[in-house]
Give the backbone structure.
Amino acid sequence: MRLLLNKFMSFGAISVAQKLIALVLQIQIIAFAGETEFGAYIYLLNITNLVAMVVVFGFPQLLTREIAYYHASGQDHQLRGILRFSSAFVAVGTLIVAIVGALACWSYCSPVAEIYDYAAWIAILLFTTLTLTSLQQAILRGLQRVMVAAWPMMLLQPLTMLGLVVASKLLDWEGTALELLIYMVVGNLVASIFMAFFIRRALAVQGSQKKIVPSYSLSVWWRSLLPFFLLGGIALLMQRSDILILGIYYPPEDIGVYAVAAQLGFLAQMPIMIVNSTIEPQIAAAHARNEYGQMRKLYADLSVLTGVSVIAVCAGLWLAGPLLLTHLFGPTYINSYHPLLIIALGFAIGALIGPTGTFLSMVGKERMTLYAVGGAVVLNIALNFLLIPLAGLEGAAIATSVAMVLSKVIMAVMVWRELGIRPGPLGYFGLARANVAPQKSENVK
């Protein structure tokens, strides 16, 4: 527990700094671009993230798990093989989608004063940087360089963007969604350069003693890729469908108001993100060494750690939410308060249940995670279409929170059945059976 707490605090310091920078950045963007352009920027950014998810096709999750496994078991040939295979696959996919997107913009994006037209061209460039950085982060996490994988995108990227926004304000430039997307591209490229340096150094140290010939386990990788791809897409839809569907019924200004609620609400998710980013390689390595008792204790520790942390964040948002919204963003954004509380409550319940999806995915049970989250995202979309016309921003928040909690409950049942791990803090009461091995993974190494 002490080692876990140390990792949590170290990564937590970066996460807190990142959230503070993101908050300042969002305030500056709203002051620079205004509510309408900010809403358009958020909407295009959500669409671009979905496109990037399609292109990477589940490779970030696969890379983290397989590289951690190969690194722990000394299978350097397989490690080099999956690096080459993933790089080639994603590079070809990126090129194809970029060409298709450029042709679509050429045909349909007109030069009239439509808020999304010119920015759509930059969104094509943005998604290529998103695919690159997502792979780089996955590689570094798999190589146990979790902190190095985190700080370029969590600190360097938003700081670069913040500097560009502040400089533009000082120069009295007109703030548009187009400029904001360009600044994000620049920030991603700066972070990518740093991560490329650390990846090159880590692989050079690993292969310094002998020449490593890549080996390819294509059948094993392909069996996991589709579930990981669908799982990544479904998880992203779970997070983004509310904003995407809001764009159908509401103008960009209202999308911006809801985005502020989502941004602050995601403060409650921060402990969960810290845990998932730092613990994935440790779960995969423990599974590779058949340390099932350690996995059970780890799950219980994580549930307590994230649960207590998320509840504390929710209490702070409940007490200070109106003050933050009105003084930091403006009187208009007080309408974000109720959606903010609903979103935060959903994260709190999910945190107490435990890191269900992470455990299932890292031990080769990603198909089960897919089934649970897939059903939940269908419910999420249906509830959004039902509740947004009836309850507006609050309806979107309710739909997202209900679907998220349902998926966690279903996966908790799967974790109990497959790994013998009880949900949440109840896992401590099952440690007496820690020597009992879980059922074999679907992907036997």
